[in-house]
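Operator note (shift B, R.M.): manual run for Nudix hydrolase domain-containing protein requested after the automated queue skipped it. Running by hand, logging everything below so the morning shift can see what happened. Input copied straight from the record, untouched. If output looks odd, do not overwrite the archive copy; leave it for review.
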Amino acid sequence: MSGFNLDALKQYIPKDIPQMPRLPAWTKSHSSMNPDEGEEESDPAVTSPSMGKGKQAEMPIDNNSAEPAMVLTEPKPIQPGPKENIDLVNECDNFPYYQTDTNMFFAHINTYYALYVKDLPDVELGYILPSVAQVFSGLPDWKLDNKERILTLIAGNSEEERSKAVAMTCQALRATNHFSVLRGWRNELYPVYGPDRELLFSIERSASALFGVVTYGCHMTAYTYAKRPKNEAEVGGDGEELKLWIPRRAKSKQTYGGMLDNTVAGGIATGEKPFESMVRESAEEAGLPEDLVRKSAKAVGTVTYFHIRDRRAGGETRLLQPECQYVYDLELPEDVVPRPSDDEVQGFELKNVEEVQEALREGEFKPNCAMVLLDFFVRHGVMTPENEAAYSEIVSRLHRRLEFPMA
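Run finished. Output pasted below as returned.
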């Protein structure tokens, strides 16, 4: 953070930006969960075995701030080599659990700053790195409390007003070119919800990780039952083999370039319903006919996790990314072949279960896509308590309850 010119940021604050349209909020009913009050703080010497050795988290630069927070190591991908399914879960859902690692949970809680809006002073909306939070010191529309480690959006009394203030700040941050994560600017708005599922504000997609807010996406696995010759021990005609359509991400993508993905995946924008997002992404990424997707795609649940970003995500590391993915299955006829419709996918390959499992073991999949595939294997009886020792833990970890309000 040394050498950062805050005045330069201030002068880039736009005087005005176009009014953003009011978009519908979703229906109500969910509240956030926070750990019990009164717990003892963690041991400063504690480090997370799952985080690996790496660059230390940056501390606040304000000399008048509270005492320095815990020193946390930088998250890194799991070491090369065969990975167990539980390793894949640990790699994606890598924010510590209060219930199982209380010391490390509080090491993180006492390091990051909590995000609030002034109208909901008791509701945490996200966690922010100290090095990011300090940029907001003295900025219009924001209040930074270093003693309590809180960043509050104090501007706006409505979703539209708050969204405008957040947009102005994000545009200013982008103009300074200080955060590399903003070089992937998408011109897409992500929603941030309150405890009653009300839409509090919208934020530029690429900036969401800076604020550590919950983001939403849709992931679909397209599969088919392909004919295969039966072996000598089998009786009758040809058998059927479960195969999945697996795309490889373009190497040029800012995030997880060149890694394997789910058949279709994308973010859900403000005001967009999950299924409509799925239909749109299916056409954009895989060239799948809209009528086929609307007729045959099935909603099969969600996958949730709390991710600490590593270098493969693009931009700054240690940014927090709590996410909820709406999951869909689509059984395709053998004659329907997904094809890239944009520059985000290199191509698709039809892989059988053993080939997909091998790619998972070798760490070829984007971390959250590995989670979606594990969920697919559970639901389709590929992974069972009989063939997976960590079955119950994996199943529960695929559906983490996040600490923030959700849609």
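Quick read of the result: The chain has two domains: 6-207, 216-397. Residues 18-70 have pLDDT under 50 and may be disordered.
Leaving this for review. - R.M.
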